[in-house]
């Protein structure tokens, strides 16, 4: 299939390249455009979507072609550049006003992952503070987006190292349960929770990964298992309601998840179902870790109560493929995230070390 080009009818993207290549960088800057791995098609199909306009980037984020908090931030940063390069205004105020409009459209895509707003804000600040001429601002923004992406890769590797240091010391190799997808696909590469798992494997301490399927979008089943297969990480797929049973049988030594937004007190919003994992882990005395970059911490929020929870299309709940799984007349609720209270979290693993949720505030000085 390599090199086959095709149009996605009616979606507005330039073109899609299908290939069997398995390198996992979800966002790639190539010549004059951004290439995204289409995460809605994995694991059955590896497709690349080309993005040349910021509105297409906004649509790619909203439709989850690119997803996962850090990857959303990186994609939005490139979206800011794409928007900037199309701005016709030559006066600084006019240019910045239009750039703010680009920021609003990109920011209106997904409300929970704070990395989106963090990246957009950082790009706006870069544009405001640069001393170059207006015509040169887009180039400065391209460099800033590339910088955000490069930093995230280093950040994930640091999270992996710090995570490895706090994993339980067991005589046998560790079996780790994870929820959703927090791997290369969700970041610049390597991953957060899955990054810790990669580091654990590199240290020859990993037994296997238990991947929750992660209803309704199935990021665990479709994306995490795919990444594990690419990298020969032993993986067992389980349905979301099997975690307690597996823990009771002694199959799991630790649970590690990612985060979309962490409040200053350590309350953590992550993919719906994470809270269940934390509760069953506590019931079985199993450590429950959150792995995330500091860009995922929203120090303006004192607790998780203020975290906006995205509600998505109810079809994600009532349909499997195109088949409805319940009779007409049923009501639906489809929150995409839940908030795990800090007291259920053993430690939050960041690029600056692993801390108890109560000590997260000490890391605020490192946030840029
Ligand atoms: C390193 S990714 C951390 C989180 O973003 C991840 O766990 C998650 O909840 C992703 O949600 P998604 O809706 O797929 O964007």
TrEMBL record:
Name the pathway.
Amino-acid biosynthesis; L-methionine biosynthesis via salvage pathway; L-methionine from S-methyl-5-thio-alpha-D-ribose 1-phosphate: step 1/6
Residues with site note (Transition state stabilizer):
180
Task: Give EC number(s), comma-separated.
Answer: 5.3.1.23
> What's in the keyword line of the UniProt record?
Amino-acid biosynthesis, Initiation factor, Isomerase, Membrane, Methionine biosynthesis, Protein biosynthesis, Transmembrane, Transmembrane helix
Domain of life assignment:
Bacteria
User: In the UniProt record, does the keyword Protease occur?
Assistant: no
User: What stretches pass through the bilayer?
Assistant: 60-81
Among the GO biological process terms of this entry, one is: L-methionine salvage from methylthioadenosine
The record places the active site at: 260 (proton donor)
Query: Which residues are involved in binding substrate?
Result: 67-69, 110, 219, 270-271
Catalysed reaction(s)?
Answer: 5-(methylsulfanyl)-alpha-D-ribose 1-phosphate = 5-(methylsulfanyl)-D-ribulose 1-phosphate
A Gene Ontology molecular function term for this protein is:
translation initiation factor activity
- UniProt cross-references to InterPro entries, sorted A to Z: IF-2B-related, IF-M1Pi, IF_2B-like_C, Initiation_fac_2B_a/b/d, M1Pi_N, NagB/RpiA_transferase-like
Family under the similarity heading: Belongs to the EIF-2B alpha/beta/delta subunits family. MtnA subfamily.
The entry's function note states: Catalyzes the interconversion of methylthioribose-1-phosphate (MTR-1-P) into methylthioribulose-1-phosphate (MTRu-1-P).
User: What name appears for this protein in its UniProt entry?
Assistant: Methylthioribose-1-phosphate isomerase
- Gene from which this protein is expressed: mtnA
